[in-house]
Amino acid sequence: MGDFTNNEKADIHLMYGADNSNGRTVLQLYQYRFPSRDMPNHKMFQTLHRQLCENGSFITSTGGKCRSRAVRQTHLEEIILDYGNEIPGTSKRAVACQSTNRLDSFTFELLMDAFLKLF
Fold it and tell me: Which of these, 24, 22, 27, lies nearest to 12 by C-alpha position?
């Protein structure tokens, strides 16, 4: 489904609803209406409709797979690491609260990556 633009996908979905959800006849209607476009497989009409109903968008859900990594925030990293080095023996939770006023995985991962032996 990645070969079609969002406008084309919207037209595909519109045709699917206009012809009572029959994939093969919808394909014929789509070919008649848009003769210069690439023709999708007749199963794509149903797949696209189901995807829109389940996800609310044309983008497929990855289910948590292939998540992008967070952007590094070097100024926060320096603050957290400096605070952790100034007071040895401090817990990760205390370092997170005192240095950034927030508890999140970013702080904990940063401390683990820095190999600080905090309690």
Answer: 27
